[in-house]
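Per-residue structure
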Amino acid sequence: HWFSVLILVVWIGLNVFLFVQTFLKYEKSDEYYYTREILGTALAVARASARCLNFNSMLILVPVCRNLLSFLRGTCSFCNRTLRKPLDQNLTFHKLVAYAICIFTAIHIIAHLFNFERYHTSQQAKDGSLASVLSGLSHHEKYGGSWLNPFQSPNMTVLYVTFTSIAGLTGEIGTVALILMVTSAMEFIRRHYFELFWFTHHLFIVYFLCLALHGFGRIVRGQTKDSMKESHPHKCAQSFEKWDHHDSHCRPPQFEGNPPESWKWIVAPVILYIFERILRLLRSQQRVMITEVVMHPSKVLELQMTKQGFSMEVGQYILVKCPSISLLEWHPFTLTSAPEEVFFPIHVRAAGDWTENLIRAFEQHHSPVPRIQVDGPFGTVSEDVFQYEVAVLVGAGIGVTPFASILKSIWYKFQRADHNLKIQKIYFYWICRETGAFSWFNDLMISLEQEMEELGKVGFLNYRLFLTGWDSNIAGHAALNFDKATDILTGLKQKTYFGRPKWENEFSTIATAHPKSVVGVFLCGPQTLGKEPAQMLSPIFQSRSR
């Protein structure tokens, strides 16, 4: 994963570079000499954090442009396996950028709170200091309406300016939208209240609108170029008491607000994302025909569909919407078909309100079949499986779906005697809590067993099924029938194991059997599934495999 680490280092480096560069600009530039007299270092901190905030806001939408990622993964010839791996971490990068936006937003807000307080204090000051004189420039029309302090009178409060200025209002609304998006994106809410997560995450529209408008208030001001030539702060700052004297060579400085620049950072990714959504909208409007509906054990619904012009690769997924359940919600489902098939099925397990309502709608035989809209397909890491000589597929429960697509495609390739098939060995692990789950793809596994025997490639597919939810009755029944040719639970020749795999032993055996092969390991299921295998993989395969 060196390339992913390189991208992360470059991203962090760019953030540091932009922060330091902008900080030094506002801390050292003569243009902001008088502004610093009022605000101090908080000015540079606010502007540096704003620049980093703009930079990360520019990046936040790119990792969620699904069509762009699928294009880079599948159609760019220059994207080899190493370069494609970071695409699999798109949501991780999206979250990291979101965390950076939150951090820089907090820094920006805190810095501007100090700035507003100092603006307010200098406007009320009567000590004749340079800061008070600069704040008082806004009182005099003879200075051409030029002002430096947004607090136009001593009676203005911080609260008043915050809620009446463009910068203040857009900052508050944008911050509230950001807080709602981040808090509703927590894993607990995503899993149990997906609708809440989905709706609040679309507040990004409000956030980007506020970000684009935020700079139009021009609240941060610097000395104009013409004024710098006439009254450079190095020669005129010390004689500020004489600015009004006729015999003085220094005139009161003139100020102007910084031109808004946030919109320049975000306009390109926003246009890209708009095109992405338009493409997805047009594609989702194509008619989808449901050819077959199958109810499997353990509350799993199989929908077999067709759509004109639909093409896919192994392990890809689609977004599904059922307008009769929700007009706005789209949910991702992995395709369980092979590219060689004319239809594309999905398997839907009851895991929330939306999926339960979908299953219930198709269980009602006397009512019309619900209309389904489909967007996709979109690429995943599973597409790379045929680039390895040896592949290890690990699925838990419904997480087996991408591997069903892979195994189906392999069955078709053997049927057609595809000599370009690079993969030589597959190790397949399927871990389930209930015995009924094995029936989802039971026919597929039986067909593969028969095909391997007929072609004399019994050793090509090594699969192991693990049952984690069992009692003494199931175990006793399996033990009594252990000597039978087929497994009593699945009907397959391979016996079902009880408990969980011992990953260290499994991976050590695979690494020993293929010391000179590149072994690709693919996992799909709960996060807890990947923790132990991930810990075992690195030392085992680094020491025994290339």
